[in-house]
């Protein structure tokens, strides 16, 4: 097992006193333009600043760092995170140990932690949402979906994709997909079927008229349902 003995590289740039340890260190403006520092992760950047401050406490004035457990405590971070940061900060350190991170400092939880982070990342990734093609009228489609739902037909993403695929084929054949949707809605069909009239023909499909007819059909259906309920109520009263 290696011996932990690590110090800050170019420590004289941060502390040039040779006989005392003042409670501060020097930070030069040039670090704002150092690419290697600015490419660090936020966590490693924070750890690096903390390491500089801890190195200022070295009684030997050589910029040596304390043990990893002490670093974790002083910086109020978990040991595993300190270890990962130290690996990223290797070029900012001078280490005289056999390995910068000895076997005794490695954690069995490091791999598990990485896997957990990947799992969390996967869980947070948004699921794909099916987008209706712009050549299908949204209002007409919403009515069709409502009718399918009333008939207890599935409106799952797979079912919708299947319907749109059929409509796309109709469109490639020169048929108006919106007319197919309107026909299905008007006839209370669960599926979509090709129309006889091609788009652009003499009997061109009138979307506005179709929507108006569909609304009228829905109103008539609602009125019919209401009349049936009234008739059933009257008959029930006569029998009583």
Notes on the protein architecture:
The structure is a single chain. With 240 residues, the protein is mostly helical. The chain has 2 domains: 6-106, Cyclin A, domain 1 (Orthogonal Bundle), CATH 1.10.472; 138-239, no CATH class. The protein contains 9 helices and 2 strands. The chain has helices spanning 35-38, 42-55, 68-74, 79-88, 109-124, 138-150, 157-172, 177-186, 207-239; strands at 6-8, 93-95. The chain has a two-stranded antiparallel ribbon with strand order 1-2. The protein is rod-shaped and about 105 Å long. It starts with 5 loop residues before the first strand and ends with a helix.
Q: Give average pLDDT, whole number.
A: 75
Our estimate of the beta-strand percent is: under 5%
Give the tally of structural domains. 2
Reading the helices and strands in chain order gives EHHHHEHHHHH
Largest sheet: 2 strands, antiparallel
Task: Provide tags for this entry.
240 residues, mainly alpha, Cyclin A, domain 1, two-stranded antiparallel sheet, 2% strand
Short recap of the structure:
The chain is mainly α. Helices cover 51% and strands 2% of the residues.
Write the topology of this structure:
Layout: E1 6-8, H1 35-38, H2 42-55, H3 68-74, H4 79-88, E2 93-95, H5 109-124, H6 138-150, H7 157-172, H8 177-186, H9 207-239
Antiparallel strand pairs: 1-2
Helix pairs in contact: 2-4, 3-4, 6-8, 7-8, 8-9
